[in-house]
Design goal:
Elements lengths: L8 H9 L20 H4 L31 E8 L16 H13 L2 E6 L5 E8 H15 L3 E6 L5 H5 L4 H10 L2 E3 L9 E6 L1 H19 L1 E7 L5 H5 L4 H10 L2 E3 L9 E7 H21 L1 E6 L5 H5 L4 H10 L2 E3 L9 E6 L1 H15 L2 E7 L5 H5 L4 H9 L4 E4 L5 E7 H21 L1 E6 L5 H5 L4 H10 L1 E4 L9 E6 L1 H20 L1 E6 L2 H8 L4 H9 L4 E3 L9 E6 L1 H21 L1 E6 L5 H5 L4 H10 L2 E3 L9 E6 L1 H18 L2 E7 L5 H5 L4 H9 L4 E3 L9 E7 H20 L2 E6 L2 H8 L4 H10 L2 E3 L10 E6 L1 H19 L1 E7 L5 H18 L4 E3 L9 E7 H19 L1 E7 L5 H5 L4 H10 L2 E3 L5 H6 L22 E7 H13 L3 E6 L5 H5 L4 H10 L2 E3 L9 E6 L1 H27 L2 E6 ...
Antiparallel strand pairs: 1-3, 2-3, 4-6, 5-6, 7-9, 8-9, 10-12, 11-12, 13-15, 14-15, 16-18, 17-18, 19-21, 20-21, 22-24, 23-24, 25-27, 26-27, 28-30, 29-30, 31-33, 32-33, 34-36, 35-36, 37-39, 38-39, 40-42, 41-42, 43-45, 44-45
Helix pairs in contact: 3-4, 4-6, 6-7, 12-13, 18-19, 30-31, 35-37, 42-43
Length: 1289
């Protein structure tokens, strides 16, 4: 019989209420079964406003009372009258100081603030947010937006602490509540006045609250009684009951110091009358006890005092309660053993008896056990000792480390029981357990433990022992093994063997630079894992990165360590070879060309030279490009990068022979000398050979003229160094440096010319910004030093001077945030220039600074004024469409012209309508130039400056106007020049900085137009013609590669010619560089194969295919019948087994598709001998696998689960074995489908319910329907799959 779980009323109610504590298992007899109603099994959801709520009963089983949720956000509105507003300017309401203050308060408090202006010009403020945030915001608003008043209030000094409150909480609350600032005098200040600052309304509120607190404290009194400490227990009573009763009766608060505090004072606080009553009652008790009590002293062992005191002093309180006698104990840290009993004479006897009884109620015994056995007595996680303490909770057991004793303390009987149990445990452990100690060198300890404790855990589990290896900090060589005697000896033997093996092992240290460690280890340790897999017996240890050590340790058998060391040394040698690095200085403006569009150029150089190339970031001032890799590859990459720079600019490279011994002196301290030459010569690059190379060659690279200049200066400096090398240093403020140098270096050049000395100023990167270095002959250096010192001294004398500047020129000096004034200050020693305020009509300009700087600045201002007065404006007409090209990237070209010619250039506003009238741009280039140009307003560019400077600037501007030239290019080549999606034409336009216009395809013109600067157009023309020649060569080559041959091959051989995943045909294509096309499925001629390519290659490929076909024709095909149940086993997981078999016998084996008419038919194809051998092997496999399949099916027949509907065998049917119908399942009464509430419905069969339901106009649920009642956990018949496994998509 199968069991059916029946839902009883009790279990159902427990289910509904959620109070069921344990699950019901098993079955309930049929006669006790209870059938629930539909509403009980499926309770309805609660309805809104159900009557059940009023009666206090739950609406339904689902119902639960939901607490109302309070809003966490509040809003407060308050008003600031006009006379109290701090900021009264309404012209900027919402933008002035009030708005800024509110914004700051919102950010600091998190509250939202809204301001509005009332009709009376008062301020209405609405604050929204959490309560705490609103209160803080309100306080800040009142303090910052409302005028503040102050007032004082005087209350007694002793009441101040009540205004402050605990930890200042009361004061903070008061300040928030009243939005005021309350200042209370310090305790040492004799003043009793409290100062309140805030609005009038807030001050009144705060004053009222403070006076209320003081008035409340006036009603209270404090009394301090000094009574002997010995009588305090009688006043407090047992367990403080007497003093509590006294507090309740009188209403006063009575504070008695604890026994541990040696203080006689008792404090009583409260209402005056209550305090007076309490004082009189306490004095009466004290006088009574002092008169009636006497004392006796007894000696009790100090160790027993704690038992008399009891936990938290409870025993003393019990004695006081029982006898009325107070027991005075000496302090625990005192050596005294005297106990004093104080009480009435007739009660001292019983109290003394209780004291002795308590002292002897606890006994202490000791048990002896070896110290190593203690942890086994305690047990894992204290299990053994826990059992004893649970049975005997009043026994305290204490183990002492390193000692062979166990202390037991507690009631006599329980201690004896615990002692007996512990002795039994010790006796049992001494029989079962043993230990041994092995001396092992600490250097082997971590190897014995193994990675993550692998070795030691294995020994512990294998021999059931405990192995204790000392910590490194202990510096001990003693390893202890504890456990079963036999296991201990075996573990000891294995540990000794491991140590002997390690002693025979060799340790070798490899010196590997730390920078290579991460590379050798690889990402996530992948590379070092490969090394460890190759040498599994060798342990490779890398030092911790924080140690900055270069030593890598190898440990293992001697031969393996040597092999591993050689392997690692080879890896290191490759890394060293590939880590060669050189830095190449490249002018910053050419970095983008070296990178190329989308990084194309730099990527190509990296791939072809197999190097790593790092460029400085765009915002960096560095010009160095770092190349890393093999030396030869790095040099090749450097040459290619330098070649790009040479192509882009007129760059010259020159070598100068200077003796190597002078190199360091020429470079100077931190490179200051050589840097000054590079800066003086327009940023040339000077490269000295590496120290110790012995080379005399110094390389200078840069623009042609600057290279020559740098060469002269370098040779001159070298000559000076050889003749007389003298150096002096001078200190000057950094702001004086520009004045000392002068405009364009004029001042410092005069000093150099007069003295012949070289003067070097610090660069922005130098740490010593005040240090000026003078180099040359001793006499020249001293003369230059004197001149510079004189100049610096003059600069230190600050003077103030005035000059007049016409008001109309003031704007030129102060516009652009005073840029001209900043430049003057920087150039002339940090002097200050002050212009009058705008609108004052004053012409007086004040200059303050060093005398020489002021004079020079006045002269410079006069020059600027003369320039402004002599300025003219020149108009240049250039079509608007060229303006962007003339400006250049980020306006760099225009900036260059304005700097070089000292003029101002203004471009007109862009006219989009005018731009629309121009020719529309083509897909791949610029617009077609107009035949005739008529200037418009938007075409006029205005140049302002001196007349003699405007004309050269105009010529320079016109030189930037693009020109257009035609290039003859055959129409057939246009699409190749444009490239895929215009990539080819875009690349050329970016490379040559021109616009290239290709005519529309329908015009079929043989002309391409190139527009740009003259020099760029010429380069683009040459590049275009070069591209044309390349395309023509490609066309000729394409014609040669178009040779085709067609050959006929039987379609059945096509799969073999193609090979697995196209491997065979791909190899033929690769070997002969041809294209081979097979017929598509729908083609009529399925036997034709087309080969195309160079004629010779095509012929060779055809011969290769013919040879392959000849071999295939020798093959035979034979069918063999194998039981389909064994196919999956023969094929193996993912076809692995069958592939191995086909490779072994050199045959092709085909299995039938699922659903085939002949599921057992297998086809084997190959050479006759190999086919026969393969078939024999397959038949043997079938016979072997059939035995296994038969056994599995037989076993499965007995393991089948019982039938769902009770028809199965094995006695696992439904409720009634005799009935062949389905089980009743879950049954309910009064269901919706039971229209008349007839109980018989729920007991009808499924067919009867369905029949009657149809008569009444609705359909009962179909329990046999998998859709209405889906099954869970039952098996689903799998779809038929291929023997090769599931398909992959």
């Amino acid at each position: 019989m199968s069991s059916v779980a029946v839902l009883t009323p009790e279990s159902f109610e427990e289910h509904r209420s959620g109070l069921k504590d344990q699950e019901i298992t098993g079955c309930v007899p049929e006669d006790e079964a209870y059938i629930p109603t539909y509403l009980e099994a499926f309770p309805p959801l609660p309805e809104k406003g159900a009557p059940g709520e009023k009666s206090g009963e739950p609406v339904s089983a689902w119902g639960s009372k939901i607490r109302p949720i309070k809003a966490s956000v509040i809003t407060q509105v308050f008003h600031v009258p006009l006379e109290e507003r701090r900021y009264k300017d309404n012209s900027q309401f919402g933008e002035g100081e009030e708005a800024k203050v509110c914004l700051d308060i919102m950010q600091r408090t998190g509250a939202h603030i809204e301001l509005s202006l009332a009709k009376d010009q008062g301020l209405s403020i609405m604050v929204t947010g959490k309560l705490d945030s609103v209160m803080k915001a309100r306080k800040e608003i009142v303090a910052r937006l409302q005028t503040q008043a102050s007032a004082t209030v005087a209350i007694p000094k002793e009441h101040h602490r009540f205004v402050i409150g605990k930890n200042g909480e009361k004061l903070q609350e008061l300040e928030l509540k009243t939005a005021t600032k309350i200042a209370i005098p310090r305790p040492d200040d004799p003043s009793a006045n409290i100062r309140i600052t805030g609005t009038k309304e807030g001050i009144e509120k705060a004053r009222h609250e403070i006076l209320l607190i003081s008035a409340e404290q006036d009603k209270r009194a404090v009394e301090r009684l000094s009574l002997e400490k010995a009588f305090h227990p009688f006043i407090a009573g047992a367990h403080n009951r007497l003093v509590q009763e006294l507090s309740q009766e009188t209403g006063a608060r009575i504070s008695i110091p604890p026994p541990s505090l040696p203080k006689d004072e008792i404090v009583i606080t409260g209402e005056k009358e209550a305090v007076a009553l309490a004082v009189s009652r306490i004095r009466a008790i004290y006088e009574d006890k002092k008169r009636k009590t006497t004392t006796i002293s007894v000696e009790v062992k100090k160790s027993q005092h704690k038992y008399i005191i009891g936990p938290k002093g409870n025993t003393l309180q019990e004695i006081l309660e029982a006898t009325g006698v107070s027991v005075e104990m000496p302090p625990l840290d005192s050596a005294s053993e005297t106990i004093i009993l104080r009480g009435e004479p007739d009660k001292l006897g019983p109290a003394l008896t209780q004291v002795y009884a308590k002292a002897k109620s606890v006994m202490v015994v000791e048990a002896s056990a070896p110290a190593w056995l203690h942890r086994f007595i305690i047990g894992k996680k204290g299990q053994n000792i826990g059992r004893i303490t649970q049975q005997l909770p009043r026994v305290h057991i204490e183990f002492t480390d390193g000692e062979e004793r166990i202390s037991l303390e507690g009631p006599t009987e329980e201690v004896e029981q615990a002692q007996a149990q512990i002795q039994e445990i010790i006796k049992d452990l001494l029989v079962r357990m043993d230990y041994t100690e092995v001396i092992i060198d600490p250097r082997f300890h971590r190897h014995l433990i193994g990675k993550n404790g692998a070795n030691i855990n294995r020994i512990k589990e294998q021999y059931k022992v405990s192995v204790r290896i000392p910590q490194d900090s202990e510096r001990s060589n003693l390893v202890r093994i504890e456990g079963d005697p036999k296991g201990v000896q075996m573990a000891r033997r294995e540990l000794i063997e491991m140590v002997q093996r390690m002693e025979n092992e060799r340790t070798k240290d490899l010196i590997v630079e730390q920078k290579f460690h991460r590379t050798i280890i690889g990402q996530k340790g992948e590379k070092i894992k490969e090394v460890r897999d190759k040498f599994p017996e060798v342990i490779i240890n890398f030092p911790d990165p924080s140690q900055k050590s270069d030593i890598v340790q190898l440990r293992g058998p001697k031969n393996e360590v040597e092999k591993c060391a050689k392997f690692l040394q080879k890896i290191i040698a490759d890394l060293i070879e590939n880590s060669f690095s050189i830095s190449v200085p490249i002018f910053k403006q050419f970095h983008k060309n070296i990178i190329g569009k989308g990084g194309a150029n730099i990527k190509k150089i990296r791939e072809e030279t197999n190097t790593k190339i790092d460029l400085p970031t765009e915002n960096s001032n560095s010009e160095m490009i770092v190349i890393t890799g093999k030396k030869s590859n790095c040099e090749a990459a450097r040459d290619r990068i330098l070649a790009i720079q040479r192509e882009l600019a007129n760059i010259k490279e020159m070598e100068v022979a200077i003796p190597a011994k002078l190199h360091n002196s020429l470079i100077g301290s931190k490179g200051c000398l050589v840097r000054s030459i590079m800066e003086d010569c327009g940023g040339v690059h000077i490269h000295f050979p590496s120290e110790g190379s012995g080379s005399d060659k110094v390389t200078i690279r840069g623009p042609v003229g600057e290279v020559e200049k740098a060469k002269r200066q370098l040779l001159q400096l070298a000559e000076e160094k050889q003749v007389n090398n003298f150096t002096a240093e001078l200190q000057a403020k950094p702001e004086y440096h520009k004045f000392l140098i002068g405009r364009g270096g004029a001042n410092i050049r005069r000093v150099r010319d007069r003295t012949g000395a070289r003067i070097i100023f610090p660069s922005p990167d130098d740490t010593e910004q005040e240090l000026i270095t003078i180099v040359g002959k001793e006499e020249a250096v001293h003369q230059a030093q004197r001149e510079l010192e004189s100049l610096v001294k003059n600069l230190d004398d600050v003077v103030e001077d005035c000059m007049e500047v016409d008001v109309r020129h003031h704007r030129h000096f102060v516009c652009r945030r005073g840029q001209v004034l900043r430049e003057l200050a920087e150039e002339y020693g940090g002097m200050a220039v002050s212009f009058p305020r705008t609108g004052s009509n004053s012409q007086k300009v004040t200059l303050k600074g060093a005398k020489d700087c002021v004079e020079a600045a006045k002269k410079r201002i006069q020059e600027i004024i003369e320039d402004l007065e002599s300025q003219v404006s020149v108009e240049v007409a250039i079509p608007q469409r060229y303006h962007r090209a003339i400006m250049g990237p980020k306006g760099c070209r225009i900036q260059h012209i304005t700097r070089e010619h000292e003029v101002q250039i203004k471009f007109p506003e862009r006219d989009d309508n005018a731009a629309g009238q121009e020719a529309s741009p083509q897909e791949n280039g610029e617009v077609i130039p107009d035949a005739e140009f008529v200037p418009r307003k938007c075409d006029i560019i205005i140049i302002s400056g001196r007349a003699e400077r405007c004309e050269p600037a105009k010529a320079a501007l016109l030189a930037l106007v693009p020109i257009t030239e035609d290039v003859e290019v055959s129409y057939d080549l246009h699409r190749y020049i444009i490239g895929q999606k215009g990539s080819g034409i875009r690349k050329m336009m970016e490379e040559y900085e021109v616009n290239i216009w290709v005519p529309q395809p329908d015009k079929q013109l043989n002309v391409i137009k190139v527009t740009g600067l003259a020099a760029n157009v010429e380069r683009a023309k040459l590049g275009l013609l070069e591209r044309v020649r390349e395309l023509q060569a490609e066309q000729e080559d394409r014609a040669l590669r178009s040779f085709k041959v067609t050959m006929s091959v039987d379609p059945k051989f096509h799969p073999k010619i193609i090979g697995r995943k196209g491997a065979v045909i791909s190899q033929i294509r690769k070997d002969h560089n041809v294209i081979i096309q097979f017929p598509d499925k729908g083609d009529e001629q399925q036997d034709l194969i087309v080969i195309s390519g160079y004629e010779r290659n095509v012929e060779e490929a055809r011969e290769a295919i013919q040879q392959l076909v000849a071999e295939l024709q020798e093959m035979v095909s034979q069918d063999v019948h194998l039981d389909s149940r064994t196919h999956a086993r023969i094929i193996g997981a993912r076809g692995k087994a069958i592939r191995k078999l086909m490779e072994e016998f050199k045959v092709d084996i085909r299995f039938p598709q699922p659903g085939s008419d002949e599921p057992d038919k297998v086809t084997v194809m190959g050479l006759p001998d190999t086919v026969d051998a393969a078939i024999d092997h397959l038949l043997n496999l079938e016979e072997e696998y059939l035995l296994s399949v038969t056994e599995t099916e037989t076993l499965a027949a007995y393991m089948k689960p019982p039938s769902r509907y009770g028809g199965g065998g094995g006695g696992a049917g439904g409720v009634d074995d005799n009935s062949g119908g389905p089980a009743k399942g879950f049954v309910v009464r009064d269901a919706p489908w039971n229209a008349a509430g007839n109980k018989a419905w729920s007991l009808m069969s499924l067919s009867q319910i369905q029949a009657r339901a149809c008569i009444r106009g609705f359909t009962a649920p179909d329990m046999s329907s998998a859709e209405d009642f889906p099954t869970f956990g039952t098996g689903v018949a799998p779809k038929q799959t291929s023997a090769w496994g599931p398909k992959k998509f």
